[in-house]
Amino acid sequence: MTLLPDLTNFNAELEAGTTILAVAKAAGVQHVVYSTTVPVPETEPDHFAALAFKPKLMLEKALPEAGFPRWTILRPGFFMPNYLSPKVNAQFPGAAEEGLFTTGFRPTSMLPMVDHEDIGKFAVAAFQQPDRFHAQGIDVISQAVTVEQSMETMRRVLGRPEIRARYLDGEELRAAQATNPVLIMHELLGRVDPYAGVDPREAVEKWGVEMTTFEEFIVRERKDFDETYRNV
């Protein structure tokens, strides 16, 4: 089960998830794998991020109590496809046209990056080894890199020196967040310490799932990267 937040109606995600779990239980589903989100720092209850992530946290609490024989929670980080069209247009408006990534992250912010296919690998592994993955909450992070490292990797692998980041801060960031809530998420994710300094590959090694580096992701998706940044 994976659900996208409805930024115009935060309760919609909770309602949908609750319905899915109820239908699955009635149908006799034996194992539920729920993909949520990497933990983020706590904020005030009425903060945009708190409201956006609350449904996921509530569903995480509801799943173990729903009575399924087996359940697994996967918590993926910042999606690598956010650098590809069409997602890049929402995450970093203008980046596809100019190569300039305007962001609420800091240069040294550690991005808990995840390849969407790695999430799928974990889901498959959970269904193939249900007893081992039962009652587990797993942070699925393919690689943790700084924002500047992600920029450097794209410049080098794609051969596009124009790619760079513009870091908003202070009043400029507050003003931009008023019209682009994605920047609020950037600021919060930038405060996450993935695995507290532990190499995420080591942290997930015990599960036997091979993870993808950002460079490997770019190479694999090179055609889409070239198409996304064809005007840069």
CATH class: Alpha Beta
- CATH fold call: Rossmann fold
Q: Whole-number average pLDDT?
A: 92
Side-by-side strand order of the widest sheet: 1-2-6
Helix-strand makeup class: alpha/beta
Number of β-strand runs: 8
Specify Rg, calculated over alpha carbons: 18 Å
- The residue fraction in helices comes out at 40-55%
Oligomer: single chain
Secondary-structure element string: HEHEEHHEEHHEEHEHHHHH
Give the termini separation: 37 Å
CATH architecture: 3-Layer(aba) Sandwich
Give the total of domains. Answer: 1
**Shape, per Cα inertia axes:** globular
Report on the biggest sheet: 3 strands, parallel
Number of helices: 12
Q: Which regions contain 5 or more consecutive residues with pLDDT less than 50?
A: none
Beta-strand content estimate:
15-25%
What is the CATH H-level superfamily?
NAD(P)-binding Rossmann-like Domain
How would you briefly describe this protein structure?
With 232 residues, the protein is of the alpha/beta class.
